[in-house]
Amino acid sequence: MAKAKFILKEPNSKSDTLIYLVYNYQYKRFKYSTGETINPKFWNKTAQRVKTTKQFPEYPEFNSRLDKIENGINNAFRKLLNDGTQPNNTILKQALEDELDDNIVKSNRVTFFEFIDSYIEESKLNKTAGTIKVYKTTFKYLKEYAKKYKPINFETVTLEFYNQYLGFLKHEHNLSNNTVGKHIKTIKSFMNEATERGLNTNLEFKNKRFKTIREEADTVYLNIEELKQIEKIDLKASPRLEKVRDLFLIGCYTGLRFSDFTQISPENIIDDKVIEVRTQKTGQRVAIPLHKTVRTILKKYNNKLPKSYSNQKMNEYLKDVISLAGIKELIETTITKGGKIEKNILPKYKLVSTHTARRSFATNLYLAEVPTIAIMKITGHKTERSFLQYIRVSQKENADKLLTHPFFN
């Protein structure tokens, strides 16, 4: 017997989440985005409807729309059988949308740009400021391309568009390969989300040739000796740089991102042994043993770290700190911008940013032969492959590490 039910996309979410229709028929499962969203606290899982509550006064109209969808799928299924048509998910989706009126199904009305605009607003409730900034920049480039060349909608996001858009970003905006890759990844995220919501049926963005390009960046890390140099410099004459140095070292010995290591509070410190935080970017809870340097810095501020400058300002001041520590080794960097390889030779301190702290933590623990899986528990990397791409170990450092291996002894 065919049966319809409604489920939440993210039942444990603290903000609005999508409602899906799930229809089980003839040993098949059809899943359809209703386009409706609800905060889980207002959802009655047993009744599969919005709770009857004054806190959500529009519940009668909301539940009426869900009733209409449920009646629509039942009618669509029955009509297909009566017409002698064997249902499958594609046929059933079209039949359902034919049943529903225009007030329910908006997939033919919502354009790609309208969707992106509303999705960015929606994301402000549960995404980081950095992610929202990336979304807005990607949207800006898409609108510019559409105005200059051709309109973009769900059905036009094809391999042809992909190839032309790569050229637009690389040659007209002189963006690096990694920045271009970031924008392609964001477009794929938009398309994925729209597809899940039933607004898009064009899946060409999933083609393996519609790929997120990236090249290994010439990022640096700071080894233990360099971190000690930074820790030793006397910055009492410049409270600004002293604060930046201290916060940066917290990052170097915890592996936390800037958004997390600058928010450590006394509540995060457990028994003066471990720091426990829920990371802002991924929502993961991590526990990190307190390094002696971290203990010293926390004691200096009575476990309440000073308020940080913005990430941009921190990066600016940090270069002064690293320079004062005498870390000025010349590093050759290469980057592909506008389709051309650019080479530069820069002193190491100019390549340091707040994210260097996290990379230094991972690399130093790896060189100290801490098990990779233990480091990944803190950094949040899902695979060993992605972790090994993240750390920075030179050929010489790798050889030195192997010298202690039984194979070479």
From TrEMBL:
Keywords: DNA integration, DNA recombination, DNA-binding. GO terms for biological process: DNA integration; DNA recombination. Belongs to the 'phage' integrase family. The keyword Ribonucleoprotein does not apply. The lineage of its organism: Bacteria, Pseudomonadati, Bacteroidota, Flavobacteriia, Flavobacteriales. This is Site-specific integrase. Residues 110-195 form the Core-binding (CB) domain. GO terms for molecular function: DNA binding. Residues 217-403 form the Tyr recombinase domain.
